[in-house]
Amino acid sequence: MPADPARKAALDILTAALGRKAGLEAALEGPALAGLAPQDRNFARALVMTTLRHLGPIDTALAARLQREPPEPVRMILRLGVAQLFWLDTPAYAAVDSSVTLAEADRETRGFKALVNAVLRRAAQAGAPAADPASLAPPWLFARWRAAYGEKSARAVAAMIAEEPTTDLTPRNPDEAAGLAEALEAQVLPGGSLRRAGRGRIEEWPGFAEGRWWVQDAAAAIPARLLAVRPSETALDLCAAPGGKALQLAAAGAAVTAVDRSASRLRRLTEALARTGLNATLAAADAETWADARAFDAVLLDAPCTASGTFRRNPDVLWTLRPGDIASLAELQSRLLDAAARRVQPGGRLVYCVCSLETEEGEAQAREFLKRHPAFRTAPAAPGEGGAPEASVTPEGWLRILPQQIAGGLDGFFVARFVRADA
Ligand SMILES: C[S@@+](CC[C@H](N)C(=O)[O-])C[C@H]1O[C@@H](n2cnc3c(N)ncnc32)[C@H](O)[C@@H]1O
């Protein structure tokens, strides 16, 4: 019997996402889903996301039932099988049988059919693993979060891993938020983001074609609001693509220059500018060596990072991240911060942010930056400024946004605002 196409696609996507080859986003956009009927595509996507959101407990359940490590493709089939047993509405016999069929379909896994059958049957008999939030995160990351934020907060962060995120939108014109919310059946969040629980093709949602909003997590919309650009000002976004924050700066009326070293990612910003009718000057360049001598009123540095705060949409990041990545990214971030500082006019502002939960990429960067650049000081965020959760404001006036800080969740972010005080 041939394996069903949705489960085969899920297996390919899960393998690519966890193999660090493509990343989940690219794998979801790749050929695996393209040829499927809509219903199969939705099931394949749900299967992958459910597996990734419960990978910790799934692997614990498998470890208890495996005497030795099976080949990687077999482990992937087992992971999908356990996800179906406990977190999707698949009857146990169907979860087991379809996993056996999936194993049978490939020469590499065919010899493990009996193992797949036995392990999944035993897992089904044992029942769903206990719901311990800590088990949802890789142990080394959970230990880091516990050290940084304390046991209670770390557990609340980890509990968000299993949650399906809503879709947040940023209106081009903040005055339209209420009207758009009605048309979209969305909720207006404190900073003006719109939150929609609905699914489906966003291209078909009211206002998309007219460019009246773009998709942007509620937390991701906060840094640009903190920069508070005015229409007469010049603004530089140094790591701009795919461009949600550059669109915000342009929508606020600033003369925006958007730099990113990835020309292909910048193309997404070009498309979004065309759709929204907003303007920005784009430059595909390395921020450290960009040959442009101008200084700007406002500079935003949304630096490349581990993205550990984006696990609600990209749960694969938690499982592909390695401890060494944090140190090498932190080094890059401090060089980019130095490059950003050189672009700030006397009296100008700099907002630094990362969608990371790791303090080396956040608090430590801000602290070291202030030591290296005595001309800058922190411009503290006021409680609730830009829609930031009140609990996110640190004693220094930076924002440490944790995913559980608003109902329904938001991405984890660190944000710091500095002013160049030697005006
Ligand atoms: C976190 S993403 C930026 C997201 C973007 N600000 C937004 O709101 O959509 C980081 C970006 O930094 C870019 N990048 C990484 N290193 C860079 C460098 N040395 N110079 C310029 N851009 C860089 C990456 O291509 C990536 O697009």
Structure description:
- With 423 residues, the protein is an alpha/beta fold.
- It is built from 18 helices and twelve strands.
- Strands 5, 6, 7, 8, 9, 10, 11 and 12 form an eight-stranded mixed sheet that branches.
- Strand 5, helix 14 and strand 6 form a beta-alpha-beta unit.
- Helix 10 packs across helix 11.
- It is globular and about 70 Å long.
- The model has no long low-confidence stretch (mean pLDDT 96).
- The site of S-adenosylmethionine has 17 residues, from helix 14 and strand 6.
Throw out a few tags for this protein.
14% strand, four-stranded antiparallel sheet, alpha/beta, 423 residues, eight-stranded mixed sheet, 44% helix, binds S-adenosylmethionine, globular
Write the layout of secondary structure elements.
Elements: H1 5-18, H2 24-29, H3 31-34, H4 38-53, H5 55-63, H6 72-87, H7 92-104, H8 107-110, H9 113-126, H10 139-149, H11 151-159, E1 167-171, H12 177-184, E2 187-188, E3 194-196, E4 213-215, H13 222-227, E5 234-237, H14 244-251, E6 255-260, H15 263-276, E7 281-284, E8 296-302, H16 316-320, H17 323-341, E9 344-354, H18 363-372, E10 376-378, E11 399-401, E12 413-420
Helix pairs in contact: 1-4, 1-6, 4-6, 5-6, 6-7, 6-9, 7-9, 10-11
The chain binds S-adenosylmethionine.
The site of S-adenosylmethionine has 17 residues, from helix 14 and strand 6.
Q: Short summary of the structure?
A:
By secondary structure, this protein is an alpha/beta fold. Helices cover 44% and strands 14% of the residues.
